[in-house]
Design a protein that fits this description.
- By secondary structure, the protein is an alpha+beta fold.
- It has two domains: 155 residues, Gcn5-related N-acetyltransferase (GNAT) (Aminopeptidase), CATH 3.40.630; 159 residues, Aminopeptidase, CATH 3.40.630.
- It has ten helices and 13 strands.
- The strands form two sheets. A nine-stranded mixed β-sheet has the order 1-2-3-4-5-13-6-12-10, sandwiched between helices. It has a four-stranded antiparallel β-sheet with strand order 7-8-9-11, with helices on both faces.
- A hairpin with a 3-residue loop joins strand 3 and strand 4.
- Helix 3 packs across helix 10, helix 5 crosses helix 8 and helix 8 packs across helix 9.
- It binds coenzyme A.
Amino acid sequence: MKVQEWEPASAPESEVAAVIDLLNAAGEVDVPDDPRWQVDGYRDYLCCTMPGERRACWVTPDPHEDRLLGQANVLLMDDIGVIDLIVHPEARGKGVGSALLLAVARRAHDEGIPSLGVEAIGETPSIPFYERHGFRWAYGEIRNVLDLGSVDWLKLGGMAQGIGSGYRVEYYPGGPPEELFAAYAAAKESVRDNGDGDLDLRPSSYDPERLRASLATLHRRGLKPYIVVAVHEPTGDVAGLTEVVVPRPRPGRADQYDTIVVPEHRGNGIGRAIKARMLFELRAAEPKLAEVQTWHALEKDPMLKVNADLGFQPDREWREYEADVPDLLRKLGPSLA
Ligand SMILES: CC(C)(COP(=O)(O)OP(=O)(O)OC[C@H]1O[C@@H](n2cnc3c(N)ncnc32)[C@H](O)[C@@H]1OP(=O)(O)O)[C@@H](O)C(=O)NCCC(=O)NCCS
């Protein structure tokens, strides 16, 4: 079995299509209810990263057929690499995944990155796979999915209006305007490092510079951002915010990563109102959108109630795992040498 490095930026379209076929073959088996990926926009999705970060990719071609047995990529950040690894359902249990993982671990080692993290989807073989390779379970979340076809828009309209006085709700397709950057980043900073153990595998922006870079990267990757904020009128502070991205290579399902209500503004209906307003805006702006997915911590999370009120249904657990690169190489290297 041959693991070879793959350069999505210069790869022919047929190779990008082969990766999409692999992702969709795995998706059919592992997450049958998830929408499938499409070639359009996938190259940019892989190639564009935040400044200072880079992504390395590998593929395992099938020696007998014109298809891929597996693909891995790793986003190399300052002190952690984030793994994405898929093996074709018909090629599992034969060491393809482990061989790809070794390529990832070697690269992290060569670049001086001490640990690797991964977001593994519950009820898929990735859970036993990463545990078998000694990854530690660091953080857990429940994914929730809202089917836009099931939304009671009248009820939702009431929620969008049900916000305490002294707050103004604003909608910004594409990202917040420059003049709101400082207040926006300050709202994010207010809930940073809340000790929940999250490995920070997804980008977030706690200062205006990083926010600017992060929005530019989202656009280049084909992840269209939508923002709704609640502004506290007496101070001009951002009291709450919610962010959604709609990925070009998977336009049927949007990701709602971050919804924050600044602690001193909680209890005013802000969380529900901004998420409700977001759904109205998405319905108008994204005609192909069928579902929105979001995540909440396994522990008691105030967002749980908000999500349930809006009609989100708990779907399955997602787990963040982490491993030290030297440990991984010690275990994987000799067995696959
Ligand atoms: C997880 C995955 C990468 C494993 O690939 P693989 O090539 O089958 O893995 P390997 O053959 O290298 O297995 C390595 C070890 O992992 C463990 N493992 C892998 N799959 C397992 C399973 N289904 N059940 C139990 N253990 C498993 C085994 O212990 C195995 O070692 P052993 O055979 O020596 O005991 C593959 O199943 C996959 O692509 N899953 C994708 C799941 C996913 O995220 N889907 C959603 C997005 S589409």
